[in-house]
Amino acid sequence: MNGKNLILKWLQILMCTTKQARALLVFTFIAHFMFSVPVYANDDIELAGDIIRVILPLTAAGMTFFHNDHEGLIQFSKSFLSTVGVTYALQYSIDTNGPNGEEHSFPSGHTSTAFSGASFLQRRYGWKYGIPAYAAASFVGWSRIESDNHYLKDVLAGAAIGIITTYIFTDPYQKEVVATPFVGGGQYGMLLSTTF
């Protein structure tokens, strides 16, 4: 099964399953995608970039569980799968070689997935999470250039894809606030409550 058909199959399954099954599918897809490509790091910088590109999307998905944010998990799934789909589609339709001679270098898949995770954290949960996540994603992009796997244009395109797809599918997280009016015993008012 090629990459495009695999992504379409995952999307089809994801839309037809329960919450727990969706969560399992998301983590399985991330693990499959991230670990199915052999890692041959030439140095510590490249290896660190390879590791961080896995950690960022996993952290983004994990934050949805930390916040008990079912809607966030769906939004992350859509944005991450779109990032992967667009990246693969471009890599196989614009066949360019990287500085090391490897095929399919445009756009950088490492960078697009890292920026997908980072921009989700920022967009959904704010700059408190976004600043360190963007710093880590930027390191991934730099590591791809430093290790001669990609040109700057490959990395910039990957970052743009990760950010744009996330902004299309992700809304800022809003804790549910419940307003309850009360009247009785000569008193009236409004009770506001939220969950933490």
Which key phrases capture this entry?
196 residues, mainly alpha, Vanadium-containing Chloroperoxidase, domain 1, two-stranded antiparallel sheet, 7 helices
Task: Assign a percent range to the helix content.
Answer: 55-70%
**How many distinct folded domains?**
1
CATH architecture level-2 label: Up-down Bundle
- What do we call the CATH topology? Vanadium-containing Chloroperoxidase, domain 1
Taken in chain order, the helices and strands follow as HHHHHHHEE
Question: Per DSSP, what share of the residues sits in E-state strands of 2 or more residues?
Answer: 5-15%
Task: Work out the radius of gyration.
Answer: 20 Å
Number of helices: 7
Which consecutive residue ranges, at least 5 long each, have pLDDT under 50?
none
Tell me the major beta sheet: 2 strands, antiparallel
N-to-C CA distance = 43 Å
What's the β-strand tally? 2
Looking at the structure, what is the overall shape? elongated
Question: Which strand order do you get reading across the main beta sheet?
Answer: 1-2
Structural class determined from secondary elements: mainly alpha
Report mean pLDDT, rounded to a whole number.
Answer: 78
User: What's the CATH class label?
Assistant: Mainly Alpha
Describe the SSE topology.
Blueprint: H1 3-14, H2 19-35, H3 44-66, H4 70-93, H5 109-125, H6 127-146, H7 152-169, E1 177-184, E2 187-194
Helix pairs in contact: 1-4, 2-3, 2-4, 3-4, 3-5, 3-6, 4-5, 4-7, 5-6, 5-7, 6-7
Describe this structure in words.
This protein is mostly helical. It has a single domain, classed as Vanadium-containing Chloroperoxidase, domain 1 (Up-down Bundle), CATH 1.20.144. It is built from seven helices and two strands. It has a two-stranded antiparallel sheet. Helix 5 (109-125) runs antiparallel to helix 6 (127-146) and helix 6 packs antiparallel against helix 7. The longest helix is centred in the middle third of the chain and has 24 residues, at 70-93. The N and C termini lie far apart (43 Å). The model has no long low-confidence stretch (mean pLDDT 78).
